[in-house]
Amino acid sequence: MSKSGKPPEQATDRLFATERRPEDFRFDASVARVFPDMIRRSVPGYTTIIPMIEVITEQYVQVGSNCYDLGCSLGASTLAMRHGIPHPDCTLVGVDNSDAMIERCEHYIALDDSPLPVTLRCEDILATELTNASVTTLNFTLQFVPPERRTELLTRIAEATRPGGVLILSEKIRFESERDQEIQTRLHHEFKRANGYSDLEISQKRSAIEQVLIPETLASHQQRLQRAGFDRVLIWYQCFNFVSMLAIKDH
Predict the structure, then answer these.
(1) Which of 70, 100, 128, 163 is deepest in the core (most CB within 10 A)?
(2) pLDDT at position 3, please?
(3) Architecture of the 29-248 domain
(4) Closest CA to 30 of 82, 85, 98, 80
(5) In this predicted structure, what is the pLDDT of residue 4?
(6) Beta strands in 71-146 (DSSP E)
(7) Dihedral sign computed on CA atoms, order 190, 194, 199, 202
(8) Would you list the domain boundaries of the chain?
């Protein structure tokens, strides 16, 4: 962990700006270095979702409970949750399977002014222990979990969640109608162009990520969350093909 008091170096995302050999997208050191710029310019509404995670956490966090950010990357959601937790006896845990992400996340946690301790785990979220949860966040994480393992993960989260607790689930989705899908994809690409990405960057990033990020329909997400053990599923945010849901466990 850095003792310099300076944030980690951040760079402009130019990873796909030149022709490159096709390969699957990985959350390695090169992605970690440009990740804040990449996600801000790639995910519509990300800068709205993060502060709202703080608001939602504050509303649903329970005294003496655990809070989890699964797939915490550089810790944006973790820090939002941290600032939304008013109870000093709560435990906040961030989990990511990328060493490069966790290393940089440690810097941001150390520079933050909240006194609430944060435990960071570099491990697979499918294997991490979950207990006594009141708020859990999967912020654009589930889409990278193999589809056949998603029900298993959500069921474990629901079983670990206290009555009155919630899961914040943000995802890129696909649409039932091909025409709707084409419209939303075109709008998303225009969003990227407006943020300075070239057609080459958009095309190469899409090719790299399409076998790694597997989107599903909104209905599929809602039905799975209820099968997993959540009682209500609300859509609290949507922009183009990006949504954030609140899954509530009443009992």
Answers:
(1) 70
(2) 39
(3) 3-Layer(aba) Sandwich (3.40)
(4) 98
(5) 44
(6) 91-96, 118-122, 133-139
(7) negative
(8) 29-248
* 3-state DSSP assignment of residue 62: coil
The C-alpha atoms of residue 49 and residue 45 are separated, in whole angstroms, by: 6
The region, left, alpha or beta by phi > 0 then psi within -120 to 50, assigned to residue 5 is left
- And the tokens for 182? 């084409």
| Residue 176 in tokens | 């039932």
The binding site for S-adenosyl-L-methionine comprises 46, 71-73, 96-97, 124-125, 139, 206
Which residues sit in the known binding site?
46, 71-73, 96-97, 124-125, 139, 206
Per-block mean pLDDT, blocks of 10 residues, the chain (251 long)? 52 87 83 93 96 98 98 98 98 97 96 96 98 98 97 98 98 97 97 96 92 95 98 98 98 90
What's the CA gap between 93 and 84, in Å, rounded? 14
pTM of the model: 0.93
